[in-house]
Please model this.
Amino acid sequence: MNSSGLRRYAAEQAADARRTLAEHRTEAYTGVCRSCGRPEPCDEQRAARTRLAHHDATLHALRAGRATSA
Model:
């Protein structure tokens, strides 16, 4: 995959993770996910946070001109 393809893929994955995080917000009063009703953080929220961190780091590295091996 070339750098523009990787950049596009990372941006799509980061956007998807942000959508998942917006959907799986935690209710402040009860501490449960508004979408699935599980205690904070729900599995979907945890996975989306991990994906977002990974793909944001990839995008940052590409902007800085560094190649990534992840």
